[in-house]
Each structure stands twice: as C-alpha cells, then as structure tokens.
C-alpha cells in the first residue's frame, strides 16, 4: 500500500511537471510542425511541378507548345539571349530555344536547382514528345531521332548525371546550416543560461560601458561562427566534393553577416523570454525550423509554390544560400552577389542593434 | 575614498516594483571603514538597497551616492570602486575557479599577471588553490560561495557589499571569511553586509541598520540597540519586527 501511494504520487507529480513546464504542449506542437513541414516538402517533390518557370523565345513553335501547356509555367522572352540570361540569373529554371536557325533544340538548365532542374527537364521532354509527331517510339519513350534533335545543356556544368550531384548541392548549403545552428546556440541558449545563472548581472557590474560587454559577446561569437564556417567550407570541398569557382571570402563575409544578424535576433528574443523551454517555443519552432526547411539549404527554393518562394526570399539564409551557389558553382564575384550581400548587411546591422539594445536593457533590470 | 567623504549617502530613497513598494524613503549615511550590517526579515528591502547602491537598479526616486558619486550619473565610477558578493553563486560553472577570477581581473582593468597573482593570493586565502583548475560545476556549495567572495575582493575594492556572505558555509569557512573581512575593514575600506546570522553581525559590525517593510526602523551600534534590556541582537530584531512569519 505504501509503495502504491508513493507510486501514485510520482505519477501525479510527473504529469503535473510536464504540463506546468509546457513540455507536453511543446512536444505536441513540435511533432505536428515537423510532420507538416517534412510532409509538405515530401509532397511537393512527389507532385508534378507545374509551377516551374520555363523560358521560351517569342514566335517559336516551342513557345507555342509550352505556353499552351498547363504542365509548365512558360515565360516568353523576345530573343535567345534574354532566354539564356534568364537561366543564368535564376529568373527561370530552364529555357528552351533554337540557338541558330535550323539547329538543334536546346534546353538550358539551371543545374544549381537540383530536384527542380530535373523536374523541369522531365516536364519539357514530356511536353515536346507529346507535341511533336514521331518524337516517341512504340513504347512511348523518346525516339532516337528526337533525342538527337534535343541538346541538353547545364548552365553551370555541375554534371547532373553524376551520383554526387545532389550531395554537392547539399554541401553548398552546409555553411548556412552551421551559421543558423551556431547563432541559436551561441547567442540564444547562452544568454538564457547567463540569465538563469546570474552571470549576466555579474558582467553588468563591470566598470565599463555595457556596450563593450555586448560588443565582446558579439565579436567572440562571430569569431566562433567564422571558425565553424571555415570548417564547413572545408567539409564542403573535401567531403562533399565541391570545387569552388568563386571567392570563398565572399561566402565567409556572407556567413559572418548572417550569423551576426541571427545572433542579434536570438539575443533580442532570449533577453525577453523566461527560460530555455520558452526560447525553444518562441524562436525554434516559428523561426529556426522554417529557415532550415525553406531557405534552400536542403531543398531548392524553386520547388516551392510561388507564395512560399516569396516567403523564402525574405529569409536571410536564403540570401546566404544564393551567395553560396554563386561562390561554389557560378564563379560569383562581388558584382554578382552585391544585392544579397547588401540585404545581409542591413539585416546584420538592424538585428545586432536590436539584440544589443535588448541585452543592454536586460543588464539594467533585476 | 578620503575620511571626509561618506562611503554611502542616501536621501529619500524609494523603490517600487509595480504596486509593491520595496523601499519607502530611506535616509542613510555610512562612514568609511565602518563595517555595517543591514538586518531585517526576508523581503524587508535589504537586497533592493544593495542593488541601488551597486548601480544594478536605476528605477528609484531620491538620491544615492557611493564614495561621493551619484549611482545614476556616475555608475561606471561607482562600479570601479566597489565589489559585490550577491546572494546567488553567479559563477561561470563550466570554467575553472581561476578562470572566473581572471575574468573579474580583466573587467577591472588588471593585466593578466596582476590578475593571476591576485587570484592565486585569494584562492590560497580561501583554501581553493588546489582546485583552482577544476570546473566550478564540480565545487560544493560552500566552495562556490567562497569563490564568489574571492571574486568580489579580487580587485581590491574600496567598498564591498556582501549579501548573505556566509550562507551555506561551514564553521571553518565562516571563520576564514570573517578574518579576511576584518583585515579588509582594518584598511579603512568599507563593508556593507546583509546576513541572517545576527550573532556574526553583532560580533563583526560596528553599526547595525534594521530595515523592515522598506523603512529603517533602527540604526546604531550593537550595544546601543539593546535599550530594552535584551541580551542579544536577535531579541532586539524580534522585538522590532515582530515574531510572526511574513510574506515576502
């Protein structure tokens, strides 16, 4: 009987604890969100990607075929040059045109887009086979003549048939993932630990302006992010087999700016939340997870529907992944990446100020 | 701090947390080198007073000067002069005892060599030199408390605030600490402490200030407070603040 009473006490206490600490609700929300996000992404990849933007040249037969088809989102360009440029600058995922009169039909693919590029190629060939009489054999496969008439070119020469192709694309997103994770751990969790242990108030007692304390934290953690990013870049090169074609310093700069901004954001949140659990709920679920899934780190942004692409374009990590693709695959220089770099600079400045202000305020209150 | 400047001068100090008033217009002046104990029940406002004097709390009415400096206007100057041993053992637990002290030295503009010497000296004094390289997380509660004390004293402050300094310490540690506090005070440096060990306050402090419900209700030497024939200071406090338990 005595054991039973103790047992029931433990059961009651355990349940109360899980509810009072919000772990029960958090775990539930966490599971639902993960299933929804992963499931949604898996679903996207399984569905025919009819929203993929394909460039065509005005007045050509191919343009007529593709613009009338529901399976692709055809964008018409006035000439071949513009259709090609649209692929190179990421405006469309592929362009279909005949480069010279009487020449072969060329499909130029943005091969940095992984699954989306493959889906675009599949959509295009399917449509063309249907549209051109004699383009398929008795089994419904492309006839030999059709294959010969089609010239498939990769804009960046990543060799989409190579078994390491998708791995290399993942490697390009590795640095962004490292920055995201570091920023959350180094700033968010650490500040909360400083709050709960009271060490932040010890620092506040130092006879220096608190700006120096905040700067010290930011500089130290930015340095750690630089080291992690450096290691991530080495892994991308030696483990994931990427041969960078642009300047890695640009990517390092992007990582530092993204890291600084994300740290500032995490400082701001962790200065206001009560404990680590609340931080996980407030910052982890609505902020970290969407950035992880929808910034192009693991899945190409092009596979998302238009509305989600618009959301994704607002994430600083999307800008970093864009720079990463330029540096690793497109031989990017400062001229190519100045726009995402400028956005990252604005984000870093604004968030570092916001986080600094929040930590400054935190050190004043007790 | 010269002998003419009051170590602490407080006029009309009021602190409120929302609807709760923690300090209700306190006036105080403390002499340099005079060890002073602030006593009172839990929630009386002792820690709030220390937070104001150590520049940790800025939302207050009235004036508070430490060594002649306004805590609101010259907080950095005040912080350079003082040391604080808070109630909590707010240490960097993954770091070693030595690292915790070296940080304090750096924050107070001591070079690495001077910090290391001062830290070694303090660690020796409080009996932690042998474990100085171990992470603080492996220390006992008493060891952590001693380390917090060492950190407050490391940079030779002119004035030190000790909030419940001996809570959780064994007899030997308390003895060592008091010995050090006495030698600190003998150098004409000021000590303000709060404690629940009233006999310690009576023995080591020349001035006792009793606070209750945010007001000073008694102020004087331990002997001068025993006006009603009480044998101990504890009886004085109980008579002044009542014997019933209070909500904080």
Q: Total number of helical segments of chain B?
A: 9
End-to-end Cα distance of chain A: 48 Å
The number of domains of chain A is: 3
Largest interface: A-B, 14 and 21 residues
Order of helices and strands of chain B: EEEHEEHEHHHEHEHEEHH
Estimate the global geometry of chain A from the Cα principal axes.
Answer: elongated
**Got a strand count of chain B?**
10
User: Strand-residue fraction of chain A?
Assistant: 5-15%
Helix percent band of chain B: 25-40%
Number of strands of chain A: 5
Q: Uncertain runs of chain B with pLDDT below 50, 5 residues or more?
A: none
Fraction of residues in helix of chain A: 55-70%
Roughly what is the average pLDDT of chain A, rounded to an integer?
88
- Percentage beta strand of chain B: 15-25%
Short description:
Chain A is of the alpha/beta class and 366 residues long. Chain A has helices at residues 2-20, 23-46, 61-68, 80-88, 114-131, 144-149, 165-197, 199-204, 210-238, 248-272, 276-294, 306-312, 316-329, 334-364, and strands spanning 53-57, 73-77, 94-97, 105-109, 150-154. Chain A has three domains: 2-44; 53-154, no CATH class; 165-364, no CATH class.
